[in-house]
Write a structure and sequence with these properties.
This protein is an alpha+beta fold. It is built from 1 helix and 8 strands. Strands 1, 2, 3, 4, 5, 6, 7 and 8 form an 8-stranded antiparallel sheet that branches.
């Protein structure tokens, strides 16, 4: 009889501990909230100002926005930039594009050397701190030779 009472007390103690552990985990989930990793689609590149042209080169200043809160993203690492005349129906007509250093936080500059004037698609890829996937985007703008 005494052994059954001890076993029953242990079982009740384990059940109580399990309930407390589940409650603590649930409370922690409520306090911390869901894991909030944004998807690359939560970002958008846009022209920060009209392109400036000089000596056959155009400098574009882009801004990367986090769309859920509409805030600019600073500290992203732009590692790829391409320019082509796809908007004018000539996607194989590419122009040299070079990534320039970030002049001010959140302003990403691209130098493009167009072979002819027209509408260009500027495609950009960047790594954003805290995101595992690459953020890719494109802006369309008119460039002069």
């Amino acid at each position: 009889m005494r052994l059954r009472a001890i076993a029953g007390d242990r079982e009740e103690s384990v059940n109580t501990m399990n309930k407390q552990l589940c409650a603590a985990i649930a409370a922690l989930g409520i306090v911390m909230g869901p894991a909030s990793h944004a998807a690359p689609s939560d970002y958008r590149f846009e022209l920060a100002s009209p392109p400036t042209a000089s000596g056959g080169k155009s400098i574009l200043t882009l801004r990367l926005l986090h769309m859920p809160d509409k805030k600019p993203v600073t500290g992203a690492v732009v590692f790829e930039a391409k320019a082509d005349m796809g908007p004018d129906g000539m996607p194989t007509m590419a122009a040299a594009a070079k990534i320039l250093p970030e002049a001010t936080p959140g302003s990403y500059r691209i130098e493009v050397q167009p072979d002819m004037a027209g509408n260009y698609a500027i495609s950009v890829a960047a790594k954003v701190q805290g995101e595992t996937e690459t953020v890719r985007g494109s802006v369309t703008t008119k460039l002069t030779k």
